[in-house]
Amino acid sequence: MHWKRGLPPGSVQVLVWMCFVDAQATLMFSLPDSWAASQWGCTLAVVNGSSVPEGRDQVSSRGYPVPFPDRALCERHVLVAPPNHLVKLTVTDLDLEPSQSGPGSMGCLSLFLHWPDGGGHFPPVTSYRRSGDVTVCHNSSAGRSWFSASRRLALEFVSERNPEKHRGFSAEFKFVDRDQFVTRGQSLSGDGCHLLLLSEDRQSGSIFSEGFPALSPHQNCSYTLYGSRQQRVTLTAVRVALQPADSSCASGDRLVVHDGTTDRAQVIAEICRSGRVVQVTSSGPYLHVTSHVTAPPDGGGGHVRRPVAGFQLEYRFEEDPGRRDLPSDLIPSNFHKYLEDLDVMGMIIGDTINRTSVYLPSETRCELSCHQTVLSGDKRSGEVSSPGHPLTYPANILCRYEFQGNGNDRVILHFEHFDLRKNTTLKTCRGADSVTVLGLSAGRLRLLRRLCGSGQPARVMSPDHRLLLLFATGGATGAGPTGFRATYRFVRDYGLTTGVQLPTSSCAFEFRSSVLREGTFRTPNAPGYYPGNTDCHFYFIGGANETVLVQFGYFDVEGIYPCRLGSSSDYLEVESNYRANLDGLDYHGTGHGPPERYCGDTAPPNPLITDTGRLRLTFHSNGQFEATGFEARYRFISRAEEVNVTPAASTGAAELRLPPTGLLLLSGCLLRLGGAPGPG
């Protein structure tokens, strides 16, 4: 085997070939310092599980924490876990010279995670690839952990020089039981990839992707959860790492959760990104989860495996969880301090949102003086109001209104009347009676709105199937404000009334020229703020000689171009000529070239015209910031009509209704118009 990386002129290549006859033995091999100092060579250290009685130890570069030599250096470490165990490696310190010529050259650590078990032996050093499954060349990687896919994990440290006296690396490793990453269920196929999980077997458990936590899934799998007649299934995505987090769920690896027993049931969640806690509850006693792998074929009937963790889901069967009260500790007893710690956005209706701390009046009593729970299974729409409305509400109360749906439900709240005691000295909610609207997802509260004063706030849509409203008042008494009255409704179509809703996604709508040649579409809850953590897909399918024309009435999507992960951007993704199964339900895929994204000050072309009769638009919001989204008009046109298309400013786009923020998109430019206040 030849190692030619960075060989200095006149250096001697050192050939290393080791065969292991007894895999249970501990083997140490190294080149003498006097030889390695002048010749190019590699040291090899093999640590077997039998030599680590505690099941954990450390591995580091030579001499750590003393700086490693200022010369060409190559070290290899192989960690071998006991049978039925994996290796977990955590980098504790990484102090390397930044690489100038890419992985495998100067100051890099390569990890080999996918080293298949081979009985009592493992391949000799010559089977190493040029670089590992993971190559770490950045000091910011300290603290990260990786798992092996089998009993063996290897790491290689290569450096060309060390003039700055860097320490090298240090890592901790431990051996973990492989069984803790096994999904317990009844296999419906020989490969164990299709499982049935029954509540009569266990009331709760975990679902792991095949290869978790080291490698991406190898094949498409499914998991069907069956409860008893009166039960519901709650599913929580604990860890998801399927593909780059910046990818859209419209393509690439993803988990799809169906509200039923097959993949033809309505989709209530699509999960493809890390760093986002997702929790869904079935509308009946069943859930069906499918994993979709889109990596290139590996030639063996599966897909190319990537060094990402895969997914871990937790499930539990419960007697209609919607009828349980919220945990007593979910709302802190010191609610005043809780709001202060949130550093939430304070706002007064009709004013611009100002980032500020928000305080309740110090004399507010935080015992719950009133409480209402609204269940979608009991009532799909109705009305809630402050105590005593339309008369003056009491002082020193904290009222709680819980809206709990299930399945694909979303809650829309619209305030018909809003009149609260104001703080006359500040244009924020500090010191004023207020209504706080919170989303509730996976047991966590998320601030959606904080309202005070008088006027009519824009309507609010929940990001998932639950919503919590808190009404807090201070100590002022006597005649005065009349409180609030709000209507609510549970919807499963995100309140969108155009197009045909598809069961392929929790928010997917199809527009066919054979059904309607022109119409409108918009983001959920427009013209109010769109909900966070939402993906909506709009599919346009025209005839063979047709193209799709889209004109935006306004475009207000938070973000910074090019709308990627690092900027925490929401976006509209545009893909023309995407692949579509016109007779089935598979609308995912890619067309020619990567999709384009638009957000912030970079709006899509107006009008937007495709070169074929197919168009996919995907709207994504990440929940960090919100705006009013967009409204648009679409039209299927023949190719002969394209010559008559004129810019949006002269085709009536200005006549489309203005959003509350006063935004209007003309000729591809985003203009901010005066006169229309932002949504409260």
Describe the protein in words.
With 680 residues, the protein is an all-beta fold. 2% of the residues lie in helices and 38% in strands. It has two helices and 43 strands. A six-stranded mixed sheet has the order 1-2-4-9-6-7, with no helix packed on it. A six-stranded mixed sheet has the order 11-12-14-19-16-17, with no helix packed on it. Strand 32 (500-501) and strand 33 (508-512) form a beta hairpin. Residues 1-40, 100-105, 119-130, 339-369, 580-591 and 649-680 have low confidence and may be disordered.
Number of strands: 43
Q: Could you estimate the helical fraction of the residues in percent?
A: under 10%
What sort of overall outline do the alpha carbons produce when their principal axes are compared? Answer: globular
Secondary-structure content class: mainly beta
Which strand-content bin applies to the residues? 35-45%
Counted by DSSP, the helix tally is: 2
The main β sheet shows up as: 6 strands, mixed
Termini Cα gap: 69 Å
State Rg. Answer: 30 Å
Low-confidence stretches: 1-40, 100-105, 119-130, 339-369, 580-591, 649-680
Average pLDDT value?
A: 75
Strand order of the largest sheet: 1-2-4-9-6-7
Itemize the secondary structure elements and their pairings:
Blueprint: E1 27-29, H1 33-36, E2 43-48, E3 56-60, E4 73-80, E5 85-95, E6 108-112, E7 134-136, E8 145-147, E9 152-159, E10 168-177, E11 186-187, E12 194-198, E13 204-208, E14 221-226, E15 231-241, E16 254-258, E17 267-271, E18 278-281, E19 286-292, E20 310-319, H2 335-342, E21 345-346, E22 354-355, E23 368-375, E24 381-385, E25 398-404, E26 410-419, E27 434-441, E28 444-451, E29 460-461, E30 466-472, E31 483-491, E32 500-501, E33 508-512, E34 518-522, E35 534-541, E36 546-556, E37 571-576, E38 596-598, E39 608-609, E40 614-621, E41 629-638, E42 663-666, E43 669-672
Parallel strand pairs: 2-4, 12-14, 23-25, 33-35
Antiparallel strand pairs: 1-2, 3-10, 4-9, 5-8, 5-10, 6-7, 6-9, 11-12, 13-20, 14-19, 15-18, 15-20, 16-17, 16-19, 21-22, 24-31, 25-30, 26-29, 26-31, 27-28, 27-30, 32-33, 34-41, 35-40, 36-39, 36-41, 37-38, 37-40, 42-43
